[in-house]
Automatic annotation (TrEMBL):
Superkingdom: Bacteria
Pfam families, A to Z: Peptidase_M78
This protein's name: ImmA/IrrE family metallo-endopeptidase
UniProt domain IrrE N-terminal-like: residue ranges: 31-170
Membrane-crossing residue ranges in chain numbering: none
């Protein structure tokens, strides 16, 4: 499978086609399998940027990830940029998409494209079926598993931030919308 084949594919379909079944789902490995060049060089002109997708002189996608961000942030940013590639860019790559902290983490102010890329990233890194299976496995040893404990366990297993897990669990209805997690 190449990056050209992911247009309009769901994260679940991509993981399935790449034969990736168990967490953690590494977006750097996914990008490599799709033939996408990911760059993490320090670029002081992009210090406020989380990530960017553009093309090289051959028309191939390049995703730049800010190396100053923590590993979980880099993973989510790369998954987010893969979402842009699958949903917003292919088959015609013309203009770069540059994402700042605000576009990645304040999606309520940035509209559908950024929200869709965030949802794609969450689904790619934390597929619902695998979350549910993992919670069921955890409940075998901890039957009274609380939401805060589940968030920590999922974050560790799936190699994502607690905040990402919190939002994912809220969005899929596994924790109540009014639940407040003490970050």
């Amino acid at each position: 499978m190449t990056y050209k084949e992911i247009k309009d594919k769901t994260p679940y379909e991509i993981l399935d086609l790449l034969k990736m079944k168990e967490p953690p789902f590494n977006p750097f490995e996914i990008a490599q399998k799709l033939g996408i060049n990911v760059v993490k060089d320090l670029d002081l002109d992009k210090i406020e940027t989380e990530g960017q997708i553009s093309v090289d002189e051959k028309g191939e996608p390049i995703i730049w990830i800010n190396p100053l961000k923590n590993e979980n942030r880099q993973r989510f940013t790369l998954a987010h940029e893969l979402g842009h590639l699958a949903n917003d860019i292919l088959p015609s790559i013309e203009n770069p998409i540059i994402d700042s902290y605000e576009t990645l983490y304040r999606s309520n102010t940035y509209g559908g494209i950024e929200t869709r890329a965030n949802q794609f990233a969450a689904r790619l890194l934390m597929p619902l079926r695998q979350i549910e299976d993992f919670i069921a496995e955890c409940r075998k040893t901890t039957p009274d598993l609380k939401a805060a404990e589940a968030i920590l366990l999922i974050a560790s297993k799936f190699e994502v931030s607690k905040q990402a897990v919190f939002h994912r669990l809220k969005n899929v209805g596994l924790i109540k919308k009014d639940y407040i997690y003490p970050f």
